Amino acid sequence: MLNDILKILENDAQTTPKQLAEMTGMSQSEVTKLIRQALKDRTILKYKAIINWDQVEDEQVWALIEVKLTPQKDVGFDSVAERIYRFAQTRTVYLVSGTYDLFVLVVGKSNHEIADFVSQKLSHIEGVKETVTQFVLKRYKEDGEIIEGKEEVKRQPVIL
Amino acid sequence: MVSESRHGGSKKRYRISKRANQLSPSGIRKFFDLLASIEGVISLGVGEPDYATPWHIIESAIESLEKGQTMYTSNSGMPELRQELARYLHGHYGLDYDPNTELLITVGVSEALDLAMRAIINPGDEVIMPDPHYVAYDSCVILAGGKVVTVPTYEDDNFEISAADIEMNLTGNTRAILIGYPANPTGAVMSREKTEELTDVARHHGVLVISDEIYAKLVYGVEHVCVAALPGMRENTVLLGGFSKAYAMTGWRIGYAAAPAEIIAAMTKIHQYTMMCAPTMAQVAALEALKSGEESAAEMVEDYNRRRLFMVKGLRDIGLPCFEPKGAFYAFPSIRITGMTSEDFAEALLTEEKVAAVPGSAFGECGEGYIRCCYATSMADIEEALARMKRFVSKHRKD
Ligand SMILES: Cc1ncc(COP(=O)(O)O)c(C=O)c1O
Prior knowledge:
Strand content of chain B: 5-15%
Helix content of chain B: 40-55%
Largest interface: A-B, 16 and 24 residues
Number of domains of chain A: 2
Largest sheet of chain B: 7 strands, mixed
Mean pLDDT of chain B: 93
Shape of chain B: globular
Oligomer: heterodimer
Order of helices and strands of chain B: HHHEHHEHEHEHEHEEEHHHEHEEEH
Mean pLDDT of chain A: 90
Structural class of chain A: alpha+beta
CATH topology of the largest domain in chain A: Alpha-Beta Plaits
Strand content of chain A: 15-25%
Bound molecules: pyridoxal-5'-phosphate
Number of strands of chain A: 6
CATH class of the largest domain in chain B: Alpha Beta
Number of domains of chain B: 2
Largest sheet of chain A: 4 strands, antiparallel
CATH architecture of the largest domain in chain A: 2-Layer Sandwich
Distance between the termini of chain B: 31 Å
Structural class of chain B: alpha/beta
Distance between the termini of chain A: 34 Å
Strand order of the largest sheet of chain A: 2-3-1-4
Helix content of chain A: 25-40%
CATH superfamily of the largest domain in chain A: Lrp/AsnC effector binding domain/regulation of amino acid metabolism (RAM) domain
């Protein structure tokens, strides 16, 4: 039941409790209770919008940073990761398998700002061995949404 | 009416065949003529998924085109597709069909229906079907030279066709019973018990059942009972199925028939002269749908279910009693509180509030007093349509 609600909200956070109730067959108060609980126990972390910043005059620079770590005594990867994700510039931080250890997505106002972040902050964190920074040139799809060129297909009149 | 003159009204310059003239112009057609001329209409009219086909299915077809897979296939369809279909029918219903002799890939269930009728009907043979029913059913029978016998079904009986009523209408000329559950336009699903009663009658009287199960996958919280899988029915059923609805593939035009070899052979003969084969790229796509489309289909069903609950509740809230549809993607509310005919209701709703729904009478006499609302449209549109209908109903209700 909660899963139903979460799936709907993940696709459209603006769905109201009334709509959710009608879509799932639950009562509105049940829905409200479940959502409140989900927010409280951080099952739902936050409601956000997906923005196409290219539509407005607001320069944003995105960079994907691969970070290699040195395994250290006493401190695990988690605490190194924490020291990285504390920075407000980091939007996403994952521990990954493969040739590097952490995947970090950083958003800044300029290349310069990101370069500063990497050279002055990230590379100085203890346990960070190596970083590879890739600047994002164009975003095609964000969080499941195609950014440009999503065309409505028009139905033709038909009998069925 | 616009459509009447178009369908051979005043000026008769060409001699159109009696058979073609015998077909009544679809009640839905005229509606779409009107609809096309109005801006800003929300359509609950078309019985079609609002999704595009899942990408992995489209991609498989593109790849086949790139590889130059553009030739005819075998008349009965690509062997791999028939094999996969046999596997599917075995997996879902425990039904074993020989992919070489008992399966035929068709141009939609539409063609399969036509072939089935033409393969089994002699002039004067009767085909029993429920009223209301999908608009093509009677035309297919008439085109094959048969006679349509309708059995009324009622909301009080969940729009299930009753075996006793069928039995009452059997004559020496009855050749087949044509049913389609989950049903268009009512959204009704036949229970196992009622289906068994029907198949008992069919078997007992040696009458074939033609079962259009195109909406088989679109059921909500109930089971779909496959007619051919009931005891003794494999040999007595022409099972029709398709890809249009469950995999959002209406435009690909692909469906199938599963039946005893003798019937499939006859259908294949007609198919090979009239159609040659189903479109090759669509067959490739259908193969992909069968192999790995289960998940995307299930996701769509989950989504339809939400809209179904929303739509039915919404209709009831605005004062239109609505039978609970357990399958397909239609709600079939009663509009009797307005005292209007369903055609007047639908026309006024379209012109006054710009919401298109199909008058129930387009599907038979028993559809009078209802309208068909397809909920395979966005939640936002359903919500807006309901708001407009609410205004409309409070203005016109007579009780
Ligand atoms: C009950 C029923 N049967 C058959 C069809 C035709 O399906 P296809 O696209 O496979 O020709 C439809 C389409 O609306 C339908 O509702």
